[in-house]
Design brief:
heterodimer; A: about 120 residues; mainly beta; seven-stranded mixed sheet; 11 strands; B: about 110 residues; four-stranded antiparallel sheet
């Protein structure tokens, strides 16, 4: 298993500002993922962050808006840039040790409200 | 492209009864993995059960079991002896060859005391 923490747990931000969300894992993992989830809805993958390489973004998400860092095997950050109310959501970090069939472990999420 | 469909937005069950949550998927791959995840109101997503497509035997984890029908591309979750703590959103997910999860829309499970 893996224990994942996220900071902040929630935040209220002003339009046009940026917020960086941190994801810390208690052990080294190969793959880290960032998701967005509207309350009561499914998860949408933003990007996959692998250590030592550029993050891979899904359709509809761009690096300028959601820059990601992955400096080592236990830590990653997601920045939500130039925020608008449409960015209000829950942002989830998950990790996997890689390999076929390995489960993803999830952090508690960051609830973001943009005014 | 793979898709996952959960046709039941909400289900309710009496405490101690049995409930089945439906999930269908579409893929052209022959080897893959399927998952059921649970997300309680506290928001932390946890794995309930995992099924490997090449295994014909249905996976079980205590009160949770699956009915995996590969030909029909169906992967339902059965919860026996439902408990109040089972109340949550349940998501069905398919793992593709890139190790990414393709998610269903979710089913909200309500447990009636």
């Amino acid at each position: 298993s893996a224990v994942i923490s996220q900071k902040p747990s929630r935040d209220i931000c002003q339009r046009g500002t940026s917020l960086t969300i941190q994801c810390q894992v208690d052990s080294q993992v190969t793959m880290m993922f960032w998701y967005r989830q509207q309350p009561g809805q499914s998860l949408t993958l933003i990007a996959t962050a692998n250590q030592g390489s550029e993050a891979t973004y899904e359709s509809g998400f761009v690096i300028d808006k959601f820059p990601i860092s992955r400096p080592n095997l236990t830590f990653s950050t997601l920045t939500v840039s130039n925020m608008s109310p449409e960015d209000s959501s829950i942002y989830l970090c998950s990790v996997s040790r890689g390999g076929v069939g390995n489960e993803q472990f999830f952090g508690p999420g960051t609830r973001l409200t943009v005014l | 492209a793979q898709t996952v469909t959960q046709s039941q937005p909400e289900m309710s069950v009496q405490e101690a009864e049995t409930v089945t949550l439906s999930c269908t998927y579409d893929t052209s791959e022959s080897d893959y993995y399927l998952f059921w995840y649970k997300q309680p109101p506290s928001r932390q997503m946890i794995l309930v059960i995992r099924q490997e497509a090449y295994k014909q035997q249905n996976a079980t984890e205590n009160r949770f079991s699956v009915n995996f029908q590969k030909a029909a591309k169906s992967f339902s979750l059965k919860i026996s002896d439902s408990q109040l703590g089972d109340a949550a959103m349940y998501f069905c997910a398919f793992m593709d060859s890139n190790y990414q999860l393709i998610w269903g829309a979710g089913t909200k499970l309500i447990i009636k005391p």
